[in-house]
Amino acid sequence: MGEVAVQYKIMPDPDIEVNVDDLMGLLQNLDESLGKVHNVEKKPLAFGLMFIELHAVIEDAEGLVDKFEAEMSSIEGVGEIEVLGMGRLL
After folding, report:
1. In the chain, what are the domain boundaries?
2. How far is residue 57's CA from residue 55's CA, in Å, rounded to a whole number?
3. Pairing of the two strands 78-89 and 3-12
4. Closest C-alpha among 88, 72, 89 to residue 8
5. pTM of whole model > 0.70?
6. SS3 labels along the chain
7. What is the per-residue pLDDT across 39-87, written as a single tens digit (0 to 9) for each?
8. Among candidates 81, 75, 65, which has minimal Cα distance to 29?
9. Across the strands, what pairs with 87?
10. Radius of gyration for the alpha carbons in the chain, expressed in angstroms and rounded
């Protein structure tokens, strides 16, 4: 079975005060049984707002990408999650 590379844009939850650097650390330590996080970067959006760009490699099995995204969503401080890109690795 192959693997899928996924690039995410993660917005901090606007309803609570979130330290983006702390959130990056939590995202870096996601459960590796769901997928491997390869890169986590803080990037500017607009007007001083920041977002987190996360690159992960997830096994191409039914439902694993959804489980990985659910794991990210369960972290306190994570707001909106958007897939920026996805591709199959050979």
Report:
1. 3-89
2. 7
3. antiparallel
4. 72
5. yes
6. CCEEEEEEEEEECCCCCCCHHHHHHHHHCCCCCCCEEEEEEEEEEECCEEEEEEEEEEECCCCHHHHHHHHHHCCCCEEEEEEEEEEEEC
7. 999 999 888 889 999 999 999 889 999 999 999 999 999 999 999 999 9
8. 75
9. 5
10. 13
Nearest CA to 67 out of 20, 39, 32, 23 is that of 32
Q: In what order do the strands lie in the sheet with 3-12?
A: 36-46, 49-59, 3-12, 78-89
What six digits make up the tokens of 12?
């901090």
Q: Which residue has the tokens 């491997």?
A: 36
Residue 88 exposure: Cα atoms within 13 Å on the Cβ side: 5
Q: In the numeric block, which tokens belong to residue 10? A: 């993660």
Q: For the segment 8-22, what is each residue's pLDDT rounded down to a tens digit?
A: 999 999 899 999 999
Per CATH, the homologous superfamily of domain 3-89 is Ribosomal protein S6/Translation elongation factor EF1B (3.30.70.60)
Amino acid at 6: V
